[in-house]
Amino acid sequence: MASCSGPLNEELQCSICLDVFTDQVTTPCGHNYCRTCLNKCWTNTLTWCCPTCKETFSRRPDLEINKTNGTVIEGDVRMSQRALFREGDTGKQPLLRGTDQPPLPLPRKRILQRSQVNILLRGPRNNNSAPEHNAESLAQHLKENLNQGRSEVFCDICDERKQKAVKSCLTCQSSYCETHLEPHHRVSRLKKHKLINAVENLEDYICQKHQRPLDLFCRDDQTCVCLSCTEGDHRTHNTVPIEEESQEKKLVQTQTDVQEMIQNRMEKIQEIQHSVELRKRNTQKEKSASVELFTDLISSFERCQSELLKMMEEQQKASEKQAEDLIKELQQEITDLKKRNTELEQLSHTDDHLRLLQIFSSLYSHPHKNWTEISIDSDVNVLPMNRALTLVKKTHETLKKKLSHTALKCVLKFSVDVTLDPVTANSYLILSDDGKHVSHGDIEQDALENPKRFDVSLCVLAKEGFSSGRFYYEVQVKGKTQWNLGVARESINRKREITLTPEDGFWVVIVKNENHYIVFDNPVVMFSLRVKPEIVGVFVDYEEGLVSFYDAQHRSHIYSFTSQTFTDKLYPYFNPGLNDEGKNSKPLIITPVKIKRINTSRI
């Protein structure tokens, strides 16, 4: 045993087979052996003597069961055949093992180690027993055994200093170093054994049912079997040698898939590079148009112009950096795939066919990132222009129209489907069955108590919440004299009067008396619009900290909250206002976003 010390070997090993005792018996002279080993020694002989002390017995003695060690080893699975060796004139030779004999069960090192611990903890058996081991030496002993088994494959025969194994024999079910492998190259019957490169988990190559090498492949069940399996459960199945099956699965398809993935990623690089170039042209075009427009404006806009160009440049650099990172990632995946392709090519020439089949599924795994969904936005994001415009109290109408058109063009592609959440609705609100209409009812509705429901404020949230990215939705306000629209964070107070400020978790535009707009920004902003909007668009860029409001029908900007910090999930917020004796009875209506509404040719 590889992990036993000298005294412990004597406690557990049969001196004939050098393995752990199986059905341990004691001769009249006091020596211990496996019952089977001793019976083999006394087969076909007329004299009976002890293999250790050579004491001769006049008749075949009755063997006594050794109950002392038997209680420790009883129930343990016998350790695997160690390619039993003895000293002789011709060197070490294996005993009691031929090619026509079935192999012993595979090693169960942990069970043996547990038996060792039992013996050590039980203490001396008699005056001639091994010396006691203290807890510290026992722990060190087991630690060395475990560490030794994890890193490399060691020879199962070496008793003192373990040598690294170079081959594993599937017939013997043992691993050998160069020295102990020599009989397999010299002895004729051992030359017939099946050798493979040394493996740690030798049991993976052995049929656990019949303890024979797995040298056949069942195509019906897609599993490796031994010869005995073909005489039982797989008798009528289509079985072939594993070499033949391995030859047919030389990973040709896998290599083809890898090469196709490499090609797809190279095409993706070209697509990204094209998008970057297109964005460069669009950026340059927008820059030129902006410079021309700002040149015609008064000097008070010069600072705004400089800031706008700076923001656009930063966006372009960010886009290029994103493209650069994506290209690097793609190139890295290509490198990894090429490396895997090389490994697959090497494996296609391996002789370890069983190992190849067992790791075939893991070799077939590929990068999981779906590059078909990755792209570079080639449109110029001009939403920050609105932030610059808020710094100027008087905005030129031409510039404002220009920016509003371009901004809406950008945000429309982030449109989402929004539905009202009845669980959050104030009990005076009436919601349509499809969750798209909300209006104020003069009579309180029956509503179950819910911690999400607004008890005082006449508002309702959408079912959909957003904690990242960008989203845009539109609401019809036609015919209404008062309404509130915007977004609110999930953790807002819903059980008392609320203040619609960013500090309290609301980013909302308030409308009173048809055209009186109030925004509780810092500072509070009040204004009116020349044209009353009928459809209001709300856009949120979570990472940018931006909430913008648009007149979707007339393609104009209404207001933007900028430089906000969002840490909570945001929900679309709706307040249809009081009915006001029928003057404000029209509902707020969530409407589908119509992309064709923006006609860029008119900009």
UniProtKB/TrEMBL annotation:
Asked if the Swiss-Prot or TrEMBL record annotates the protein with the keyword NAD, the reply is: no
Q: Name one GO molecular function term.
A: zinc ion binding
GO BP field: innate immune response
Q: Name one Pfam family in it.
A: SPRY
Q: Which residues form a coiled coil?
A: 309-347
Cellular component per GO, a single term: cytoplasm
Q: Which named protein is this?
A: E3 ubiquitin-protein ligase TRIM39-like
Q: Which organism is it from?
A: Onychostoma macrolepis
What lineage does UniProt assign to this protein's organism? Eukaryota, Metazoa, Chordata, Craniata, Vertebrata
